[in-house]
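Chain A, query sequence.
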Amino acid sequence: MTQSKNYYRIDLILALIHAALLLISWISHTRFPFIQTKPDMSGLFFMIISILGGMIALIILAVVLPRLDHSVNQLALRKFLYALLYWISSSLIFILFGNTQWLFHLPLPCIFIFAVIFLGSIYLSIIRLADIRKQDYLILLAIFGFFFLFFFCTSF
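Chain A, predicted structure.
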């Protein structure tokens, strides 16, 4: 039983970090809100980035979750649920920080905040524990390379 505690210690730390960042982002959103003077498309921007981040995480999880230790009871399912929790909290942090007067018209720092918090949590919680082979990295590289070519190099 002590072995399973080691698997979930990083998740407890990450959950505390996400809770603290949610509190900080909510406080900064309430103290320094961006007052919109005209309608804009910021909601669409937040939705697209959050959904794309979730899709990237699903691809990573589809490759990595089968490589987790099968001797621990329901480790893959619990890690998937933690990844879902990290996605929801990272999206909320992204939206709340993005609607402050400091970062409203700066999409790159907002995307960077979301990517660092969310993908960093996925790495520390799941990827670091998995027994990933070289072939798995090549599979991920091929999938993301295909998406890059499909979305950004459409002139073929």
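The mean pLDDT is 82. The two ends are 55 Å apart (CA to CA).
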